[in-house]
Amino acid sequence: MKQKTMFPTLALGLEEDIRNSNPWWRGERLYDLPKMRRWAFKPVLSGLQKGLSPAVVLRGPRQIGKTTLLLQIIDHLLAEGMSPHRIFRLQFDELPELQKLENAILEISRWFSTNILKKTFNQAAHDGEQAYIFLDEVQNLPDWAPQLKHLVDINPVRVLVTGSSALRIEAGRDSLAGRISTFEMGPLLLREIAELRGFGSIEPFVQFNGLGPLKDKETWRGLVKYGMQHQEVRKEAFLAFSERGAYPVAQARPDQTWEAISTFLNETVIRRAIQHDLRMGPKGQKRDEHLLEEVFRLACRYIGQSPGQTLYLDEIKRAMNANIGWQRVLAYLKFLDRTLLLRLIEPMELRLKKRRGAYKVCLCDHALRAAWLQEVIPLTVEGLAKASHLSDLAGHIAESTVGYFFCSLIGLEVAHFPERGAEPEVDFVLTIGEQRIPVEVKYRSRIEFGDTHALRSFIEKAHYNAPFGLLITLTDTYSSDDPRIVSIPLSTLQLLR
Predict the structure, then answer these.
(1) What is the 3-state secondary structure (H, E, C) of 463-483?
(2) In this structure, how many other beta carbons lie within 10 angstroms of the beta carbon of residue 339?
(3) Residuewise pLDDT in 10s, the chain (497 residues)
(4) 249: Cβ–Cβ under 8 A, 6 or more apart, which residues?
(5) C or N terminus of the chain, fewer CB within 10 Å?
(6) Does residue 244 share a domain with residue 201?
(7) Which residues contact 418 (CB under 8 A, 6 or more apart)?
(8) Which domain holds residue 120?
(9) 307 lies in a domain?
(10) In angstroms, rounded to a whole number, what is the distance separating the alpha carbons of residues 434 and 272?
């Protein structure tokens, strides 16, 4: 980070823009904010006010609601009586002029201290008036991390940082060790869809307080009962999820056609991530935008599956008429993973340092696939009864949904188990401490005894330490005769949190 003398003055236009971005300084409240608060509201607010780290990082894909949550927290602080002059918001994707400042975060923070807070951050904290700084879409500033480190090291301030590009956010985390706590927010949870659409209110079955309860088979049996208690609301919400996915804009605007929603997702989520977040590599090196789009197309096409490198290379060669090396394709897949648009789930062999296998691809939301490929696949019993030829594809989408859902549980280790000799493939393996829980997705109306073979085989291998397994289903009607297997409809699984 470059050193320079900093003066608490700004260019007139920039100062005006900053003041307009902080309307509470002139006595205006924030109106038009959604009444519904995402699950992350409470833990992020708690981390900001009481956390051990001075800064909280909230990351997630574009258009997921991070800015809305940030504004809701500001509104909450104001409603509690906090002086508006203690709250400072800086939105980097709306103020390109900030790029021209040598140390933008430090310079602007000093301007805020002098002109708005009207005392040093140390004096404010001493007076019981600690300042709160909100840095929205901070990844647009290349050297944000060392500046934030300097800010919190010398000033007693509390900071909330949001970012859409995990690739750029992660790049700065090493220098911020011990100074930040990180939360990740994805698409709407099923109960959030229910609340947003006015179907009803459902509390999370397991609170956000660790993974311990998931090791107990009775937790999962209790979840099944919980799903039946909320059957009506759950089914309404799942139908909405099937039709439109879980991006807030898709569910908040049911009056908009799917064509309008898909165009919005393509342009503001997928292409924005590819053309803006991923286009430029280190030292100004440009990445191939067309290859990024093709790799994402293949991720959509093989959703919930684990295609091998030969398949990727053959498909890309046909589409682009070019020979692309596997390491480059794999790097681009990992770039997409770090934008949080998808998750690459490693095979269990890789975790055990045995032979390498293919990654399983799970999208953050099936609506991205529907928008990019222009193909809507029903996920409900009723929808698939009318389109039975789409059942296999719906099964892959369900598997992707399950995989991404488990990856969203903080601290949970998720792998898949490819076929290995006489051992059959298992869709997912959850590792909690020394215990493993195998998970199979059988997304069809009729399930037979043989469909649980993989689960039973895994459980019976003592060295895997798997006391029970989970079978994720389409309907509420199937119940396994094996007491070691808990059958859970996909829509019920989504009520876990």
Answers:
(1) HHCCCCEEEEECCCCCCCCCC
(2) 25
(3) 544 444 456 776 888 889 999 999 999 888 788 889 999 999 999 999 998 889 898 988 889 999 999 999 999 999 999 999 999 999 887 777 777 788 888 999 999 999 999 999 999 999 999 999 999 888 777 788 888 888 999 999 999 998 876 545 555 555 666 677 888 899 999 999 999 999 999 999 987 667 889 999 999 999 999 999 999 999 999 999 999 999 999 999 999 999 999 999 999 999 888 877 776 655 556 778 899 999 999 999 999 999 999 999 999 999 998 889 999 999 889 888 888 889 999 998 644 455 567 999 999 999 999 999 999 999 999 999 999 999 999 999 999 999 999 999 888 999 999 988 788 999 999 999 999 999 999 999 888 888 899 999 999 999 999 999 999 999 998 888 899 999 999 999 999 98
(4) 63, 261, 264, 265
(5) N
(6) yes
(7) 306, 347, 348, 349, 357, 358, 425
(8) 12-184
(9) yes
(10) 41
Distance, CA of 11 to CA of 97 (rounded, Å): 9
Whether residues 391 and 411 share a domain: the answer is: yes
Whether 52 and 197 map to the same domain: the answer is: no
- Per the structure, the count of domains in the chain is 2
Question: Encoding tokens for residue 86?
Answer: 């203690």
Return the structure tokens found at 299: 């991720």
